[in-house]
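Most newcomers find our protein records easier to grasp once they have seen one. Read left to right, the backbone structure tokens trace the chain's path through space. Nothing more is needed to start thinking about how sequence determines fold. An example says more than a description, so a record of this kind follows:
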Amino acid sequence: MPSVLTLIVQTAIELSTKNTVVVMGTDVDLLILLIQLPKQDSHLYLYKPGAGKSPDKVFSISCIQQYFPEACSTLLFLHAMAGCDTTSTLYRQGKKKAFNLVQKNRELQGDVVKVFNDPTSSPDFVSFVGEQFLLALYGAPKTTTSLDIYRHK
């Protein structure tokens, strides 16, 4: 059964093809889904209410998709790998570090993210490229090709 968040996003996307739709929320999952799923010509916005001294913000989803296409193509991968929320993050690795690593490392961006985003990729290949990302994130030497310690003996 789909989550409430998924249903909200699906409904907003469907409506945004013919109407201007504003979704209000502060959840990063919401922003990621809104950026990844609709077409660039949608009229979809995310309204993020301010907290404390932070002002309210409005994000145009189509503008984000248009002006940051390379970053947008990596978001689902990074969100899955770096943790979808505060309870599923990588040990001592932040989402910002993961994002910066992929943006700076063309090899990771080209190979890893493309394999992850390709629905025809085999589970074994997705696992392999995910492992390569983790090795790079944790600064493993280039000679290290696997997380499996028994392969190194």
